[in-house]
Write a structure and sequence with these properties.
Layout: H1 8-16, H2 21-25, E1 28-36, E2 39-42, H3 44-57, E3 60-70, E4 73-82, E5 89-98, E6 101-108
């Protein structure tokens, strides 16, 4: 990762993204929502399943390089490289935090 300073739950998300889905799920509130590739995943079980599916399909790395605050959201830009169609790509991760956890994550190009 670069010298970018991210809020603790977001830094934990990117660190856990390279590990087990259970570790990643601990970054989220129990009723969290993830929106990615046109699908919505609600709750910890659905978020774990989303991550397991993505990890089984593709090998990839993420490198966050910028963050900005916008209307109560933290928007992180990250360079993603892997064996998926369209790689490499820069993605925008839009996080809403609650009680030091991620309540909402939307991933877009």
């Amino acid at each position: 990762m670069t010298d970018l300073t991210l809020p603790d739950p977001i830094a934990a998300y990117f660190a856990a993204d390279k590990q087990a889905p259970d570790d990643l799920a601990q970054c989220f509130t129990p009723q969290a929502v993830v929106k990615d590739e046109g699908h919505t995943h609600t709750g910890l079980d659905a978020i774990k399943a989303w991550r397991e599916e993505a990890s089984a399909k593709y090998a990839y790395t993420t490198e966050p390089f910028a963050m900005e605050q916008m209307n109560g959201y933290c928007v992180v830009s990250s360079h993603v490289v892997g064996d998926f169609p369209g790689s490499p790509v820069d993605l925008r991760y839009r996080f809403r935090l609650e009680r030091d956890r991620i309540a909402l994550l939307e991933i877009n190009t």
